[in-house]
Design a protein that fits this description.
CATH superfamily of one domain: Cytochrome c-like domain
Distance between the termini: 92 Å
CATH architecture of one domain: Orthogonal Bundle
CATH class of one domain: Mainly Alpha
Helix content: 10-25%
Largest sheet: 5 strands, mixed
Bound molecules: calcium ion
Strand content: 25-35%
Strand order of the largest sheet: 1-31-32-33-34
Radius of gyration: 25 Å
Number of strands: 37
């Protein structure tokens, strides 16, 4: 036998045995073999449509668990697993990476970037992570503390790590990197604090910065020496007035959507809300504030500006435009168009020409009353009277800050020409804070306080709150026809914070609400199969094929922006992987422990100012501890019973490893005691109110 024949045989044997890492590159992502899922949205167009059809309308009834894995964190799970060459790669909360044999579930390796627990305070919306990128035998992950890390795909060993943000600023990374043309693209989050958002491209091999595009002008007026400099100078700088944005850059963080389009060679990024939320406080209510709440198109090789479309000029409602940017070839007004589409937080579904950003259609996909319509000629929304708030006024439009659609990915079925949007219907409640003072490093939205102390309500009169309570938020899966800008079918859920979506050539749409994962008929919305995931899922399912068998994978675990204020207890994350005939039955979760009301006779009385403490609580504590039971419900926590122990946690950081940051840099001893006084007041009144409501008043 000649040597090369032996070599060829060895390669063939290796291929046949599987596990051969061919490596992922642009050509392979573009080819998009049916059984692969190589990038966040499966393909560069981010359609989340799989051509696999073994699991279909007729067979889905036989879908069962093939294997499952348990994780060590009970915070939100938002990742889309990727699959290449028989290996499934996923991430969990706290930016941890895991690799499994995709057929058997055998764990291959894991990597923990050891994010310091106190960095959790910088994450407005939970310490989540939405997944990895793959390129040339490497796996890339962004971390909550702003690092971008390259790992060996076979072993999980780190190859390089770069700090993509200023660690002194409250930046985070929760989004998945994207691998494009030998570069790793990564954004950041933090527009509620706010930070100044930007998109970066790093060399996949070395970690060297290739280019960066800032999404807002430099408040100092100086150049950034970035790809954004020319357009900042010529266009964006003049769209900002004077106000709090000068303190820290105006938000506009690209924390989710980054889409590469090989047809136009453009990268589309969606930017977060303008910060602070209040436009009066932010800029004196001046200008459009580019490029906040916008879709920005950049030339892939250089990061140079190509075009932009601002979905919410002078945003005042936290209307991030970061939702998935999906490219597709569809008919619009009876003409074939190459488009980019977005179901925005502000409730409008946008269809834009992918080459030049021309607005082709903008239609409400949920009830919206902040704007009556979008003018297709000017591209601008026609704002409704009363949508804005200033001074003593307030507004409560639909959608609210969670949006008509948040980060949860939608999916597209080209055969049906339907985009399946996991939508929400909800009101917001907005009003300027009086006497707003910017606090470096903390939450700075400029919003008036919610009713939160013994004194009268500060935001939302009792009448308005009662009106809003009649329309609690609901969730909806909407099958949206993007050519005619109208829904074909929809499903309503009592839960508003539902999962992302997967569409397949089997004629199925996978979507979870609560702890029920369902497969719907793509054409009609008829439910064909359901499965009890035991814990709520918010991540989207994905699918892949190995050795002729199709698998459907889903990360399970509640959390995120909607979860932190929700009423679901935390449960440890799981990865569930299904196939036809799967028979595994994951064990039941232990029943959540009920936290009983405190025995307040054991409390050290507080001389603190509960009203003042309520305001401080809203600014520094409310995002994590403001509602629900997801993170410790402080009016029921023994930590509030004594002054010394409370200060050790709140000011000293005694629980920082668990994610409770030390607040000594923001709060004085007196502040902490005022917060404790407020929480003791809540402990008394909340439980009295509960007892009355359940008819057990004593
Ligand atoms: Ca936001």
């Amino acid at each position: 036998m000649r040597p090369w024949i032996g070599l060829t045989l060895a390669i063939l044997v290796t291929l046949a045995l599987g596990g051969c890492q061919r490596g992922v590159d642009g050509a392979r992502i573009l080819k998009a073999e049916a059984g692969d899922w190589l990038t966040y949205g499966r393909t560069y167009d981010e359609q989340r449509f799989s051509p696999l059809g073994q699991v279909n309308r007729d067979t889905v009834g036989k879908l069962g668990v093939a294997w499952w894995a348990a994780f060590d964190t009970d915070r939100g799970q938002e990742a889309t697993p990727l699959e290449a060459d028989g290996v499934l790669y996923t991430t969990t909360a706290w930016s941890k990476v895991f690799a499994f044999d995709a057929r058997t579930g055998k764990p291959l390796w894991s990597y923990d970037p050891k994010v310091p627990g106190e960095k959790g305070f910088n994450a407005c919306c939970d310490v989540v992570n939405r997944g990895v990128a793959l390129w040339k035998n490497r796996v890339y992950v962004g971390t909550i503390d702003g690092r971008l890390i390259a790992l060996n795909a076979r072993t999980g060993a780190p190859k390089w790590s770069v700090q993509t943000t200023d660690p002194a600023q409250p930046y985070t990374i929760t989004g998945a990197p994207r691998a494009v043309k030998g570069m790793i693209l990564i954004g950041n989050g933090g527009a509620e604090y706010p930070v100044r958002g930007y998109l970066s491209a790093y060399d996949a091999a070395t970690g060297a910065l290739k280019w960066r595009f800032q999404m807002t002008p430099n408040p100092s007026g100086a150049p950034d020496h970035a790809a954004s400099d020319p357009i900042m100078r010529s266009k964006a700088a003049a769209t900002w007035g004077e106000g709090a944005w000068k303190k820290n850059g105006g938000g506009a963080t690209p924390w989710e959507a980054i889409t590469y389009d090989p047809k136009t060679d453009l990268i589309y990024a969606g930017t977060g809300n303008a910060g602070p939320w209040s436009d009066t406080i932010r800029t004196g209510a001046k200008g459009d504030n580019l490029f906040a709440a916008s879709i920005v198109a950049l030339h892939a090789d250089t990061g140079a500006y190509a075009w932009h479309y601002q979905t919410t000029p002078r945003d005042a409602w936290d209307y991030d435009a970061v939702q998935q940017l999906m490219t597709a070839d569809i008919m619009v007004h009876r003409r074939p168009r190459h488009v980019v589409m977005q179901a925005n937080k502000n409730g409008f579904f946008y269809v834009l020409d992918a080459a030049n950003g021309q607005l082709l259609s903008a239609q409400k996909f949920v009830p919206v009353d902040w704007a009556t319509r979008v003018d297709l000629k000017t591209g601008r929304p026609v704002e409704a009277p009363g949508a804005r708030y200033t001074g003593e006024g307030e507004s409560h439009p639909r959608s609210g800050a969670l949006g008509g659609h948040n980060w949860q990915p939608m999916a597209y079925n080209p055969k049906e020409n339907l985009v399946y949007v996991p939508a929400m219907v909800s009101h917001g409640l907005y009003g300027d804070a009086s006497g707003f003072g910017f606090t470096q490093g903390a939450w700075n939205t400029g919003m008036r306080r919610m009713p939160s102390g013994p004194a009268a309500a500060k935001l939302g009169t009792p009448q308005i709150l009662a009106e809003l309570a009649k329309e609690p938020p609901v969730g909806e899966l909407i099958a949206w026809d993007p050519s005619h800008a109208r829904p074909r079918w929809s499903v309503r859920y009592p839960q508003s914070w539902t999962s992302g979506v997967l569409a397949t050539a089997g004629g199925l749409v996978f979507h979870a609400a609560g702890h029920e994962l369902a497969a719907y008929d793509a054409a009609t919305g008829k439910p064909l199969w359901t499965y009890d995931t035991q814990a709520d899922a918010i991540a989207p399912a994905m699918t892949y094929e190995i050795a002729g068998e199709q698998y459907v994978a889903l990360m399970v675990g509640y959390g995120g922006a909607g979860g932190m204020g929700g009423d679901q207890p935390r449960r440890k994350g799981r990865l569930l992987v299904f196939k036809l005939g799967g028979t595994m039955i994951p064990p039941a979760y232990p029943a959540p422990a009920e936290t009983p009301p405190l025995d307040l006779t054991a409390a050290e009385p507080s001389a603190g100012d509960a009203d003042r403490g309520g305001a401080l609580f809203d600014q520094f504590c409310g995002t994590c501890h403001g509602g629900g039971v997801f993170l410790p419900n402080l009016p029921r926590s023994p930590a509030i019973l004594g002054q010394v122990g409370f200060k050790a946690i709140v000011l000293g950081g005694a629980l920082k490893a668990q994610g409770m940051a030390p607040f000594g840099r923001f709060l004085s001893d007196k502040d902490a005691e005022d917060v404790r006084a407020y929480l003791l007041w809540r402990a008394k009144t909340d439980d009295t109110a509960r007892a009355v409501a359940t008819g057990h008043a004593q």
